[in-house]
Give the backbone structure.
Amino acid sequence: MSKILSIKKGISLAGNTIKHLKQSKVNIPKYANSVDIVQTTKGTKHTSIYTFRNRNNYLMKRLKIDKDLQSGEEKLQARFYEYINGTGENRKLSKVSSFNFGKDNKCEAAEFWDFYHPYYSDSVLFSRHSNSGVTNNFPKTYDYIEDINGFRLHPISTAEYLETKQRIGRKHFVSAPWTINESVTTNIAATDSIKECTAIGIIGEKGISLNHLNPNNRKNYDLAPIIEKLKEQISKQGKDAKAFLLGSVEADEKSNKQFWALKSALEQAQVPVSTYKTGDKAIKTTRAFLPPILEFGKIVRNGKATPFSFVSGQHIICEGNEIKIANMIIDRELANGNKNALDMLKKSFSVLNNS
């Protein structure tokens, strides 16, 4: 049975407390304001637990030290806590990182939790990465549609998109300002926030060449050099190369013209082309159920949900012939138990064919 030696809560980090922590070789996290200290013993094991909080009383770090009183050997577990934007009781966890250290301060195990808070559900979505593998509770459908060019469109949750984007890293991601210069050629690629923009994927021997073009960026006004770059990608992808276009809305004139001009150019390059046009209707649908947001940075008030889940447009991950698609419509449908890929994709695009 454990014997509690002492419990001290909410100790201000000043003077003697800081001195004591330094003597105990306990690192104080930046911006920590207070610490709870619990000391217990069980047999020959002495346990010290230090819990640090910031000035808003949010948990920042928890350090657990087990010491064998006979051998003097110590084992340590350190946990770190991160939050999404928000205030007060609505502050939500975004990440917990945990590390176990053994003899000679060697890390023996690590565990990482990522949390997502969808607006359409009270359930917290999470993924857990540890030495034993990866688990998550993301809503999923194993259904997909396949077009005559062999592209498989698979709806996924925003949580799954963000998880995969984080895993594959920046070298596989097409980022802003969304010109031909940000394009990547790799075995797996991702890009997001495709609204008035057009994403062009060229699939072939080199994997995928993924492009994301913003029609309102001056560098993209002249399509001639862009089309030449696309032709180079087609050549590098080999004789069996094929392509898709995804995104665009009619309300933005430049967007609409860019989409169809690129489609025409790809057809002239004699590659099979599939088109998935978002259109105005899908964007209007997402706007209708958007929660209140701050205009700058699209940060959700009170941290009610993971902010990125309210970035409108399409978010895609491409690998082989598969295009995984996430958006707000799919998030809501998955939360409501919809498993029908065709139904979700029809709600997400105004044109869903390759004609």
